Fold:
Amino acid sequence: MLLVAVILLLQAFVQPCSAGIVSGLLELLYPCMPSFVWYGLGLESLYLNNVCSLEGDVQKAVACLYRHKVQPFEKATFYYDFYDASEYAEADFLARPSVLFTGEYSVGKTSMIEFLLGRPYKKAHIGPAATTDSVMVVMKGDGDFVSEGAAAAMRDDLPYTTFANRFGGPFVAEHFKIVEMDHPMLKDVTLVDTPGILSSKQQDEENKFDLAGVAKWFADRAALIVVLFDKDKLAPNDNFKRALKGIRVHKNRVIYCVNKADALSPVELCEVRAAVQASIQSLVRTSELVNIRMGNFRDAPYIHKEFKEQFDNTTAYVRERIDELANPRMSKERRVDLLSVRARNVWAHAILVSHLGELMQRKLAGWCFWNCVTPEQAQEEIVGKLESIMNYMIRQPENHGVQKGDFPDVPTLQETLRAWIENHKGDHKTLADFPFVRKVHRDALKQASHDDARKLIKAINGTTEKTRVKHDEI
Structure:
């Protein structure tokens, strides 16, 4: 215990450039430390006797890897507080792939689903105002049937239990419906129609729930995301911007479409495409040019027929992407991708909070000796210097591979950190409560996002021998 105290005091006096030395000493001393002094993490026995089979059922293998390698880190590192996320249930990896339709109100989401199905579905409402006020999950059934509220969300065979837990009983009771239809398209996919995302002002005036958060919850689980814009609503409102930022990590699964584009003249069409492209480009933070598809998703003749071929190609492209989801190989690869993306995000987050927690602990230990600042001042100093701290962290060799693109932009992250600090004042938590995550744990997490995912892809393609992955006791 004396040696542990010496190491913790040493943290207070070393310069930031020497932080790696202290971390290395802690790594070496870890086996000698009782668990109660190891920052209360409880990760020391995470993988004890854990075996996940990577043969046979890919969906179950992915669910096992998530449960044993990724989910414990989410809970230990306050991941859900930072990324407006919730944990995956096993049903998320076993359910049919879903297609999410999202956008502001009255952009044609419901009309597009009915156009793709070739007929209306029960409880659907179409109009110029925000007519769809519920999440409508359109799925395969023996006949036309609608279930609502908790009875729909809490079904064991569907992955919506965590949705009900995340958004609460009142929202689910009033704004969640499952529509079952006997339709060939729904044999292999589920279509999700979401309420139009309102601005903060409209949301407050109409007492609406967090619709941007609802869209993100489904986006995190969707195999395909169709983001619709209206030709007359080119500038996204504040909540829609938040939703777009939340789904940017899924860029390979997103289709951006401008609906009702046949009502535009050739000049207007080019101007609208450029305006929407500029809006999205500023939010998704990618060097690649975002592809904006122009179309009109309704069963009616085009008003301006100059770009008929382009509109038809957009419709054909959307149908083709949905049809691909019925391919068993594509469906399995999607589940592996779901695991890989989440594991990568959690891995980067674990590195960040571990670094911030270690920095805060040094400041608190030093406070008793020479640095006359309060914990509140120390936290604000860390948050204020976040960009330089992250730049330093990224350069460290032990954090190989982590990039700025793995995190939200610095202002957003600073806002999130300040909100976390404010929310945890009541239980007396500070940044010092962020866990110090050992390299061996970070490596196990990265393995899930890369090595295990690669093995599963090879297994899907039939290019690998049967294998099992087993972690040594830690």
